Amino acid sequence: MSNLYALSSFNGGSSFPLENVPDIIRNAIIGAASKTKAPIPLIFASAMTPVSLLCQGMTDVSPTEGLTLPVSCNFCTVAESGERKSTVDKIFMMSLHEYEREIEVQYGNTMQQYETERDIWEEELKALKNELHKKTKNKQPREEIKELIREHQEVRPEEPARIQLLCSDITPAALQYQLHKGGGSMALHSAEGDIILGGQAIQNLGMLNDRWDGAPFTVSRRTSESFTVHDARLSASLMVQDAPLRKYFKRSQEQARGSGFLARFFFSRPQSTIGSRTGPTLENYQEQLVPYHMRLRQLLGNYVQKIVKKEPVQRKALTFTPEAAIRWMDICEYFERGMAEGGAYCHLRDFASKEGNKVARLAALFHYFSGAEGDITEDTIMNAQRISQWYLHEALALFGPVPEEPQYIQDAELLWQWLHERFLDNNGQPLPRSWMSPRVPNRLRNVGRLQPALEHLRNTSRISMVHNGRMLLIAPYNFRW
Which portions of this protein are annotated as coiled-coil regions (predicted)? Predict the structure, then answer.
């Protein structure tokens, strides 16, 4: 039995589609789950935080011609004390924290050298100005000394960039300045999200929304440097307990919901695993994390090198294959229909309207972090869509009310839960319909109930159905026939 199926019991009681996560990230999640026994959705969000932070500084995504989006993704996971939020966070943020410590030491050394060079430069400028003053006073020719001053201004020592990747308790002004000076890519992050929810940055929702959208911004000041920033990127990741989140919603939900701020997040409230965290730890759990951290360090090195060299931001725009572009448009149209009056998402239009955008971003992160070549494929789009739709159902549960769904959709969800478990038991292999019919949940055995549910699962790209002679086989959507 593979690690994936062996660890399915630590899924936080949910049907989180871990099988749709790329190997390099999934294996790291499996390793962390084996060690911590924390809910899989919590671990997934923790794993994706550094992925989003580092990829957003290097790449964008272009689903269709003329449309380019940042790949930044925001996550908010609601989990109570004792769910091992900080433990999981340390596992995935380890490489970033180590690198930030190294960068801080390098910055201290470089800053000391800069201050020495600056003092020398200022003394030389002072001497040149004194010489100019003398010549002016004595009515002597000044062109030569003026030219020396001009040349000296051109070799003014440049203050080294202070690269900051992560922040939590920060003011909007400080955040904007750091995006200007520190490379233009950061993450607002905390394993104790009440720090962020109670901080100043989250009070400026318009600014945070613009950073998610990748919009340029200008800061005008009377007493210090004004500046304009193009192409800055900001991710956000919060793990927060229920009480601080409710307190924030009581104070700000109307504004946060109305502005579209909440809809820009992948929200989840995974079922607790407290009380069921038993069983052995995989012997090779640390090995499962090695490729993930190697890739993080590779991306860190590439990103920091560009900043230190002060190279202009030139992000690679990832594009879709023709099949992936068609599939992405189908997904967008599906959610558009769902937002109609009486539709499945009519009470969650703010979230549903962002689904196409979020699917494209998630697919780009999967593609780029995995080191895949060429265009983003249809399979990658479908994997991202399955995960994004899981999060959308979490948002429905959190921000409902959930509208009454047609019977066939309710049946389909029940059938999918049953099928998901059977696929796990069967290592993802196809199941004959004739074998399924007498074994599905009782209410689906009634005449006319099973087939509509199967058709809906096929139409929403969760299963595929193929005839093998007279036998109808049912498999996960991405199964290679």
Answer: 111-138
